[in-house]
Amino acid sequence: MTKKFTNYQDSFFIITILFFILGMIHISFSILGFLCFITPFVLFGIYKDKIWCKYYCPRAGFFMRFLSKISLKKKLPKVLKTEGFKRGVVIYFIINLFFVTMSTIMVSLGKVAPMGEIRFMILFTMPFDLPQLLNISLPNGIIHLGYRMYSIMFSSTIVGLILGILYAPRTWCTICPVQTLTTVKKK
Ligand code: SF4
User: Residue ranges of the chain with pLDDT lower than 50?
Assistant: First the structure.
């Protein structure tokens, strides 16, 4: 019998907001963002279906909740639908995760200083600091990893918001690495 899932996406939009707020309380909470990277693939591995995308994804819920009424619904450029572009986004994320891993190891070994700012698309430092309302001291590697994860989520959310405002609320899903990597091509 096929397992039935309840669709929580509409209410899980709050998790996206909570993620960004928690990062302002203490950057180490941002490491929880890894759950959004891992869970879709675990569910896909178990059920051979995009369970995360269909029923749970907080990001999809967030875009639907806030962009449905204001999206300009312009025609989606063909380039965004091409395999090449989607694969490019996957490669970008793989490179990003490689940087995250290597730099966190180097910071933990004391070879380089931890990152202490939010960056957009790996390179561009944002002109604001995150408030850190909780004053706790943690290893540099954790702080660095937190800022890296926050930066990834921040960058992809901004890109997703821009795409969602221009085209359709969930346009990000078209190029999301989860979508690309869990789409099984029919032969
Ligand atoms: S494609 Fe990405 S953003 Fe869209 S529902 Fe799936 S995981 Fe969420």
Answer: none
